[in-house]
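Submission sheet (multi-component)
Chains listed below:
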Amino acid sequence: MKTVTFGEIMLRLSPEGHRRFVQAQRFDAVYGGGEANAAFLLAQLGADSVFVSKLPRHELGQAAVDHLRSVGVDTSHIIRGGDRIGIYFLEQGAGLRPSEVIYDRAGSAFALSAAEEYDWRRIFAGADLFHISGITPALGGELERASLEAVRTAKEMGLTVSCDVNYRAKLWDSERAGRAMSGLLRYADICIIGRGQERELFGITPKPQSDSDYEAYRPAAEELVKRFGLRLAAITLRTTVSSDRNRFAALVYDGHEHHITKEYDTETVDRIGGGDSFAAGLIYALGEGMDTAAAAEFAAAASALKLTVSGDSAYASVGEISSLAFGSGSSRVQR
Amino acid sequence: MKTVTFGEIMLRLSPEGHRRFVQAQRFDAVYGGGEANAAFLLAQLGADSVFVSKLPRHELGQAAVDHLRSVGVDTSHIIRGGDRIGIYFLEQGAGLRPSEVIYDRAGSAFALSAAEEYDWRRIFAGADLFHISGITPALGGELERASLEAVRTAKEMGLTVSCDVNYRAKLWDSERAGRAMSGLLRYADICIIGRGQERELFGITPKPQSDSDYEAYRPAAEELVKRFGLRLAAITLRTTVSSDRNRFAALVYDGHEHHITKEYDTETVDRIGGGDSFAAGLIYALGEGMDTAAAAEFAAAASALKLTVSGDSAYASVGEISSLAFGSGSSRVQR
Amino acid sequence: MKTVTFGEIMLRLSPEGHRRFVQAQRFDAVYGGGEANAAFLLAQLGADSVFVSKLPRHELGQAAVDHLRSVGVDTSHIIRGGDRIGIYFLEQGAGLRPSEVIYDRAGSAFALSAAEEYDWRRIFAGADLFHISGITPALGGELERASLEAVRTAKEMGLTVSCDVNYRAKLWDSERAGRAMSGLLRYADICIIGRGQERELFGITPKPQSDSDYEAYRPAAEELVKRFGLRLAAITLRTTVSSDRNRFAALVYDGHEHHITKEYDTETVDRIGGGDSFAAGLIYALGEGMDTAAAAEFAAAASALKLTVSGDSAYASVGEISSLAFGSGSSRVQR
Amino acid sequence: MKTVTFGEIMLRLSPEGHRRFVQAQRFDAVYGGGEANAAFLLAQLGADSVFVSKLPRHELGQAAVDHLRSVGVDTSHIIRGGDRIGIYFLEQGAGLRPSEVIYDRAGSAFALSAAEEYDWRRIFAGADLFHISGITPALGGELERASLEAVRTAKEMGLTVSCDVNYRAKLWDSERAGRAMSGLLRYADICIIGRGQERELFGITPKPQSDSDYEAYRPAAEELVKRFGLRLAAITLRTTVSSDRNRFAALVYDGHEHHITKEYDTETVDRIGGGDSFAAGLIYALGEGMDTAAAAEFAAAASALKLTVSGDSAYASVGEISSLAFGSGSSRVQR
Amino acid sequence: MKTVTFGEIMLRLSPEGHRRFVQAQRFDAVYGGGEANAAFLLAQLGADSVFVSKLPRHELGQAAVDHLRSVGVDTSHIIRGGDRIGIYFLEQGAGLRPSEVIYDRAGSAFALSAAEEYDWRRIFAGADLFHISGITPALGGELERASLEAVRTAKEMGLTVSCDVNYRAKLWDSERAGRAMSGLLRYADICIIGRGQERELFGITPKPQSDSDYEAYRPAAEELVKRFGLRLAAITLRTTVSSDRNRFAALVYDGHEHHITKEYDTETVDRIGGGDSFAAGLIYALGEGMDTAAAAEFAAAASALKLTVSGDSAYASVGEISSLAFGSGSSRVQR
Amino acid sequence: MKTVTFGEIMLRLSPEGHRRFVQAQRFDAVYGGGEANAAFLLAQLGADSVFVSKLPRHELGQAAVDHLRSVGVDTSHIIRGGDRIGIYFLEQGAGLRPSEVIYDRAGSAFALSAAEEYDWRRIFAGADLFHISGITPALGGELERASLEAVRTAKEMGLTVSCDVNYRAKLWDSERAGRAMSGLLRYADICIIGRGQERELFGITPKPQSDSDYEAYRPAAEELVKRFGLRLAAITLRTTVSSDRNRFAALVYDGHEHHITKEYDTETVDRIGGGDSFAAGLIYALGEGMDTAAAAEFAAAASALKLTVSGDSAYASVGEISSLAFGSGSSRVQR
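Outcome: structure written.
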């Protein structure tokens, strides 16, 4: 399976340990971003994974490329040019203190890239699936247009189109986001959305009785499939118990049946990228021909496992994810 | 609001990570101490915060001054002289293993300072509130006398006097402490005390049925207000679930009504300084004119938030504390 | 009390922080191994603790010796020679992600050592107890024979013989292990075994209703005592709640009565070496003349405390363990 | 003496150790910038040092403020607002490999600040000296105009005006720089310039026979004094032996006599900020009433000492600098 | 240009900082080995660089693959299997204390690999050059035979064959090495050898008057070309001034003329891999059509630059190397 | 050979990297002190090395004991008691910036120990040599008396007495030191003194023409031997080129002939403990029966090697030192 993802990869800087921004004399540096994270995991799972973006020629741009290449992501379609790589600063939360993000991505090479720079026909040659998230059109400039051209071309060329709504309130408001994402989803086969965003963006209002009332999201999934003509809608169901502990499950609806996955409850090393790993897991599992229920479980396990890995990028194998999704899931030392 | 605090700021040295003392090749270094921590947070909350102490002229004394100045504490009343800065070694506990403190503060510049070195009339000029804790008189030498002169002068000059009992069994015994603190509290408007210390120092014996029986402390608060003629008594109600997890609440009594705060239950990064942040939060909130209930909630939130910040010193803003005290308190990533 | 243990001490390398193997630019290095860990704690508890092994002359072999000497282990019976020190790589798990071990111990100086190199009569002169675990015979070469000679000689010379079954599926299969361990246990006075291994190795099948049904292991302990003619059998009862949290208890049977210890439930810094500390604690406590119940509690507390200490080696004192076993066990800061 | 400096303070991020950009998993973070570095050292030397700039309200902006406050810089004239703090990435060179800088400062709060935001009359009230460097006008937007207004107002209000040419080829070209700096220098009393820049910007061409032919710069200093009507011109004479070793001297001309300082030859920890420390040292020394020769020596010593301190900011005392400038200058351990 | 290299890539572990082996609680981990280092730099210089080896499937084997892929090395011909990755421990020297290497590579997947596992015809399809060093045949087992088959096949298929003698006394003795390398060099076009090894292995005895008497190696280069029928012989001329400082030059003889390069004298961050970078630089430069003199200068600059980069692997660009080889070579900060 | 040394072992805390005290968020921790450092190296060289001191029972005292035990120092004569371990803070210098020491050792368990606590007859049983330095009597209290009793008893019991003058101006003045050391040296066989101290303490005034005029110290050595009735006097000849570079040589006079050692010139990792390693090397070499010249060379090499090892303690073997003293001394990588 050959997959293509399109988005921004940023330099992420986090104060070491549990330090707050103002205490930090050192920042841990990784490279990541929604679609890049999905491409990163897809490559590890064995997909022929292409990541499309734009990065400056300087060493920080190069370091982002090197990070992707290290797991085998095809970076030959990354345009090099522009002045800066997007940055985001992440203060890891602890207990009741939430993590905090300072975005410093305005004016990045990617944000300023022109829609014409991406030659989708050439990029999509031989590809099976195109994945995008709502972050890309949120970055402004010509990226909403580029995103639209991408999904339209992908559709025309017969690729499966996957779209993760990924709404970020710090990037755009819900009205603009709702409009833009509706435009994209019209071309999508698969839609992934975090619970709450169906309400904020599309006015779909589930009525859960509690954080664990996952059944309550069935009508929302049905509405998404219907409204956008999807093949499959997935609603991720995260509960942030604290900065150090998350619960995660997902509901997947394929137009015929609903599957609600196992619920994972885990100490969390790094919350970022959990949703991206869900997307990668789902894409991989469907591509491997798993049925909806199995694919949902594989995706949820990929997402839960990511929560225990530091950085934006998941490091995980098909075996590890499968063992979690379908095995006993013990945390005993393997020796 | 201009506040003055008086006490010792020490160099704190902790083995890195979860290492025990005998395993350590590296110590994390911060500067802190009960009253200094309160002054530190007060400055961040916007108070004109003066810290009074004595520190050697050498670079370690200077580093303590620099730490305080970094958030805007007024250090112009810190006397420079003497030979050594007090030190305390902190081994961070984990799970069922408690944190351990080795004090090495005897003979410090502050401990050996003379009562005459502190010109309280000059120091208190223009100030609204004086805060002290039971650690200062516990350090011996002339510091009990200096503390007494400070509260007496503050009272005479019309300042609000706040006193955190802060009993440390490694510094003095409960009998001496009880006698000394009774002397100070006679001049106090506000008394803060950790549960259990009302019994150890003052023979007041609440009868809680469990760790969570916060109501049982009402009579103790009433007795404190009555015995020392206070305006307000606050009893902090901490439960050390483990070294990595604490519960925190507080009961505040203003002579008229009791307020028991929300209970916080949080993974804990650094337990030290939680009480000092409660004090700073309470002082700030009352100074801002919050009513007893709101001030208690603000103080409890400041204390709970401190538990998630490494080091002695809280790094926290009015916004963060208010959001925790009065908002939804979600730990989701802010992005 | 003079104790002798026999086994391999390895260089253990773990990615720093929570990093996965493929993310690591730095490895934390400690030295440890089942029997070495027991010897290490025994020395700290005050025993005259002798560790017998073989290590190369080079600096990494020396570093292992230095580590043992630092707490007073007698290393004069460690043979120096051979080419390599055994290594194991440990990726610390997190939450639902299990820790993972990559053994790289084949061909080590110890694994290739000849049975004749160990002069047990000289080594055991003046000793009271010999402790071995199932890891040593599992390493192949002549080590099963050397182990057998050791226990036989110890028995002849009147030493108490302690044997920790310590089955490692990555080193040998359960059939070979069962046969070999049965041979060793015939000479043993004390047998320690982790629950589950009585079934895998010896076909003894307790029927617990749940993870907490500790009573269900009574018949298994009785059978072990009977089958091998033991003075005492201990079954350790660990529950891996997650990589960050363990529960621990133990059942000890002395031929007359059963004792099931307190259950500890603790955040876990480092899971490795918990069983070894149980063994050391049990040996020490019995040597000090504690009765079965007290010795079991002391051993369980030693094991639980180890879970909070990083590295293979426990750093703990008699006072700390006793306070946990027999005291209030509070995790409050000691200051 | 009250001094005012005006410029940008940035977050500086350097790969830890000697790592190259593409190898870095961690960046050391400090805050600095030409004029900020001068203000930082002036505060430590005892000046009443005011730093004027604009910084975003977020925590990274706050951290820059805290850094300045820690040594007592007056930050009350720093405007808070805008979105981003300027960043520069510094790869420390080694041996024959030069250090490399990637600027990421376009669009910073300071770069986008309006000339009207700075109320020079209010800022300069009570001040004795204003110091600026060529970096500020190089940042574009309204900063060249703001710089000009600043020097003009300073001159009108009777302040001494000091200007460090500080030409950065990555920020503007030599022609634009030459024109702008000529405009500023017309209002300056003191001009500091690194050798080579007199040629690049002002077409003044000394004819040194070698790196050590410091005498050859005499005519250049004279020409600068004459052309811009200066009271004093200082030419810094650095030789980059390697990334780990620098030689430093300076020539100062006060219209009457020339002084060429001692030559320092030192292993170099951090090359950045050496020129800024020269400026601060010169300003301080002249303010203290030292004669030209003594002031030049003090300034050169301050600069040389900076080379041994990591980060942008000098940490140095009057005593240390004087001992180097006027004492024996031994590097023996002080004990 | 498509290049193929064949050898072992190991996990290298070095005590952090300047610590000695017995002091280390942490090891820095990188992946490297003679031929792998050459492949690594070739990929960065723009070659289509294939590295052939064998690595275990586990995560440490994977990490080595990831390291190579990060700069674009083609790892598709690395065989996966076997149990262990070779390890070498490196204690970085300082001043007069030499660096020390403990090899732990016996029994590695590569060392135990069979000659038949490498299908040279398939591997060399489309390739222009094959590079090997004397370390590969030194590892024993079937690797001498595999090396011989490789060079023979390469020669038959018309590839240029490059051979770096790279004698390691800890791996084999000079007699065996001399015999084996003579066998390989018969098929080589290019031979690279460190001075001294021409004497130890081949009995060629230059008579230098001093460390800097580079001319004295002319006859040796001529003899090498003649004896082995080479197109080009390069003798690297390193002087280890101290562990922190090296001088480097090279003499290259192409059968017609000699070129002795510039001499570099530089503080040294990491001595390992300097020779491998020389090889990669030479291969690249010749492939680009540079003449002998220019190629020698490019190679010497690549080698000198490597000395300033930590780890086994050079991180360097064509631009950086050219600037050093052909430009002014200043170490001034680039800003 | 059994050696006894008597002195204080302290916790040494140094800012990580090249940070200054006021920049440090982390301190590297080692344990050391003049006589302890000598005992540490003696144990590694194979001596039966006893260290006598007093340390508190707490974990920091224990860590000092563990450090000594790790290399086999006999710590059974260290008295445990008192409250604090002496501390010294070390800021590592760089280039022209000298290292700086802040002593915080007043009131330590050792400084307050009584002369009666040391039972010299029992301690010296079976010993061959007693070594002390001038730091011990400098610490005040009863330590000058204890030192005198030690040397007197040692002399009476037939031990060789070695005394390193080790004058520290921060501990006592030259007059007091001269008087006290003269008292001790009367009982000494061997005296070691750093150049300059013969003048400061004993009024002996060599007239060197330069730093390298080692011959000029001959008369001083002769005078020392004569004045104190020594068997051997050694003058260490250090030149602090910079904080990063030292030159070292020594002159040894045995009453018959002078030997001036090779001069070492080396990059310096850690200057502290160089003199102590000289003492240990000299004691070891003489004990091994080396003649004066060989012993001097061995001692000088031990001292020079120490300069390249971080921490107070030398890690060095007889082989390494001999290779430096008597071998080729190359710094090439050993592989």
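Remark: The first helix of chain D runs from residue 34 to 45.
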